[in-house]
Records
---
Amino acid sequence: MQPFRFAHLSDPHLPLEPDRPKGLEWLSKRTLSYQSWQRKRRHAHTPAMLAAILADIRTQRVDHWAVTGDIANISLPGEFRRGAEWLRNLGAARDVSYVPGNHDAMVPVPFADGLGLWADYMTGDGQGAVAFPYLRQRGPVAFIGANSGVPTAPLLAQGHLGREQMQRLGDMLADAGRRGLFRVLMVHHPVADGVVSSRKGLTDRRDLRDLLSRTGAELLLHGHAHVANLSMVKGPLGPIPSLTAPSASAIGYRHDMPARWHLVTVDTDGPDWRVQVEVRGVERRDAPVTALGGWSLRLPAMP
Ligand SMILES: [Fe+2]
């Protein structure tokens, strides 16, 4: 088997300008978030940093891009339009898989004016429309995308999958496992405890961990935390690595970690999987993007 290489990046948080809430759009959770954007978050993310990360990914000539949410900031229509353009610039829809984050679902937005504009990047193999979770097989890898972005009350940033998605996810993971695929589950909100506060957590993460302990998965990818984390959750054959990427546009403002991305290489090693994760990013705002470290993991394949 040829090693399969993919990029994991997250939370690009494209600039909000020139948009700002208008008219009735002020009467929503967006107002507080807009103020928060004006006060601090717009200082935390820069187009220059995101451009440097994307340029570095391009030099690595990856086979696929896995993006785990939060293109937007306060879910304004203009953000979805510019987000669609940004996705098109990353690559063809078949080469880029996306799952929404909480900032892409801050308030309910009609599908056609919101997530629908990114549909091509969230449509599963053989599907004519977006349905979560989706599955896209690329080489030996099954990219499985679930949607944890749901509107929540002000000051909360929780995520939720819900019973219906959870049920389909169980079937999908089990089936992909039987087919011997390397299952990458993408969910914006981290699955392990303690990566983010409960105010920001996935409310049904315990149910998801229960499910994963039965079905297994080879790798879990997340964003949301704006810091890097590698945790392990229980799988049927051993621990499942759960990898969280910081924001790809972050300059390291306050508690945020400066921008990073993960170069993941999947290969076989006898009956097992060998996975290499190279962490690439910047040490500080004005530093070049370089290799910062990484892990080599050997994971048992489903029998
Ligand atoms: Fe985010």
---
Amino acid sequence: MFDFIKKKIKDSINSIQKKLSKEEESEIKSDIKKEAGILQEDKEELKKDLEYSDKKELKEEIKEVSKEVKELKKEEEELNPIEKKAQKKKKVFSHVITDDDVNTIFSEIKSALLENNVALSVLDKIHDDLSVKLVGESVSILNNKKSIEKAIKESIADVLTGYDSGEFISKVKSKKPFVILFVGVNGAGKTTTIAKLCKFLQDNKLKPVIAASDTFRAASIEQLEIHAKRLGVEVIKHTYGADPAAVAFDAIKHANSDNDDVVLIDTAGRSDINKNLIEELKKIKRVSKPDITIFVGDSLTGNDVVKQAEVFDKEVGIDLNILSKADVDKKGGAVLSISYVTKKPILFLGTGQDYKDLIPFNKEKTASFILSE
Ligand SMILES: Nc1nc2c(ncn2[C@@H]2O[C@H](COP(=O)(O)OP(=O)(O)OP(=O)(O)O)[C@@H](O)[C@H]2O)c(=O)[nH]1
Ligand SMILES: [Mg+2]
């Protein structure tokens, strides 16, 4: 994930580094010129003095000064690499970052983020954040990479919100049975994510049961039953075409009598979010009164998945996001946008087809990963 953004961020840091290095070069040059000028004046003075004083002594002095002038000229000619020269002069050149510098840094990142389908509001937020963090900051010209990288990392982390998986488990344990409703378009990864989450709950000593409330798509019940058998979890089902809300209701009743800890309600998707789907989900929600509603989105669909999440939130109401297929997503635009746009945190990233491929989301790690080598 983030391959393309990673490269662009590096390019942007290098280009600002280059800009500042050029600035430093001219600063050093003008310093040297100034010093050489002063020495030249000294030399002229001494020459004048020579006419009136002890010639031998003054000749020595002139020789000294001439030598220094020569050395400084040589230094100016050799003004590369910059680092060596600045060290030699034992002078730390610093630069106060301007709006213009931040625009230079941001312009490269912006194109990368746009190409990765990052939402516009997220772009604006990152730009504003970078300005607040960097403008007016005095950075070392030779060693500004670290401070700029740090600011970019923090600005990216600022647009991300995660929901701690430990906190999630505590919440689930706070009520019995804890009911979780899953929503999302078809093929988003709901059913697979439910199977992975069963494993995660089992690993945390919780007993889940699944409601097969997708009575719409052919083979959806069998798909769930295959996972459930492997995981040793019960599936509460009706027939295809049955009322999905009634299935959810039965699953909760079953959990109460069977002492199950969590009810996971699988629902149907549609290729687009149509009225039927929304009405169906609203009814399931009314009947099952879930403690948490999770939106499952396919991260490969970039900005579309963010728009879907907004619609589901507006129509049905969502509490958390899980993004699937992060393992095959080279861009990462959905991951960067979804929590900022929907204001709902990311709980997990799906990173493959195995049950273990459900990674708790961590915003600092994600931001660091974007800037890692
Ligand atoms: N590589 C990868 N594939 C995934 C991941 N999550 C789900 N898939 C695959 O995506 C496809 C669709 O997943 P489902 O879980 O059936 O999606 P759904 O949302 O239940 O789809 P409908 O039931 O049609 O609404 C399946 O082939 C899954 O194996 C993931 O994290 N990584
Ligand atoms: Mg499904």
